[in-house]
Each structure stands twice: as structure tokens, then as C-alpha cells.
What we know:
Elements: H1 3-13, E1 18-21, E2 26-29, H2 35-45, E3 55-57, H3 60-66, H4 71-80, E4 85-90, E5 105-110, H5 114-123, E6 127-128, E7 130-131, H6 148-153, E8 156-157, E9 171-177, E10 180-185, H7 191-196, E11 200-202
Helix pairs in contact: 1-5
Amino acid sequence: MLPMLNQAVHIIKSGGVIIYPTETLYALGCNARDSIAVDRIFAIKDRPMSKPLPVIVGSWEQFLQLTEPDENVLRMVRIFWPGPLSVLVKIKGPLSSRVRDDAGWTSVRFTPHATAREICRLSGAPLVATSANQSGLPASARTADLDRQVGAAVDLVVDTPPFPGGGLPSTLIRVVSATVVQVLRPGAIPVSAFYERGIDVSPLPL
């Protein structure tokens, strides 16, 4: 195991907070089951507690430990995962209440990024995956552009390759049916990618 990867895994297991690369941007992360570490991320970002944090997993097994997806959700994620698609799912596993809303829903994606995936897998934990910036400020795909205050507040910045690809964050969807989704946040997967696969995009309710 690479020294920095080993260090990142140790920090996650010990309840710490890191900055790590994903397929799109650098992320702030911790064990999504650790409420104290999750609250620390809220403080670092100055993020309202009313906005649950998204989560990534590093394997199908981790995903199925978090939720009992219906066939429609499974069909959708099998098309796009691993990849920059975040999906709203109902959580069944023991996650911090700060990463799900009052009804138990949270945003999950199976990351294709090798480092992020290995940190999840080797730590045995789904990771919080929120952009490594203070709320309202730009996210970054380069360590040189990271907010110094945010970088100084974490236990480690994982700055080894592969580096984030940049561009838009993950696309966030709600699965309506086997062939219909709602796009809650446009992102790295364009709307055209759904139509190309025979999936309709429903407008959001007013």
C-alpha cells in the first residue's frame, strides 16, 4: 500500500478528516458513520446543518450495506456506475444523521476514482464526499487552488495521482421509474446521456 494511502486509511479509521481526490474535484471526507467527524466537516465548510452531506462507496457491497435499492434504482446505477452519478437512496445502515435527511434519504455514488475507492474499501467505510471548500466558494481540482483555511483544518491532504479530472461535480438524480429520472443537480453526466440510453428526464415539481 502506498504510504499516503495507508496514512489516509489510518486517519479515516481513527475518526479524522482528510482532503482526497475524486473523479471530478477534491473532496472533504471522513467515515460517514462517525458523527463527530461529520460535524467537524460541517464546521470546516461553514455549511448549514440542514443540508445533509453526500456519500461515496468503493464497492457494490458497500452500497448494498447502506440501502435496499429497488429494481429501478439498481437498473439505473448499473448503467452509470462506477461514475460521477449521485443517486438519492433511503438509508438502512448506521450512518450519521448529518448525512441523511429527516426521512432517511441521502445522496450516494460509487466512485470510479482509484484512490477514493481504495480509501473506502480499505477503511471499510463509506466516505463523506463534499467539495473541499467553504460553502459558497469555488471547488477545486488542483491542490494549488485549495482554500488554505480548509487545508489547514484537516488531518491530511492526499495529493498523489491520479488527480481529479476537473469540470462539473457529479450529476444528482432521483429515480422515478425504470425509465424516468429527475435531475436534481446537473453535472458531469449530461442530460443527453440519459436520453441516449432510453431514459426520460422528468421536470422537477414546482
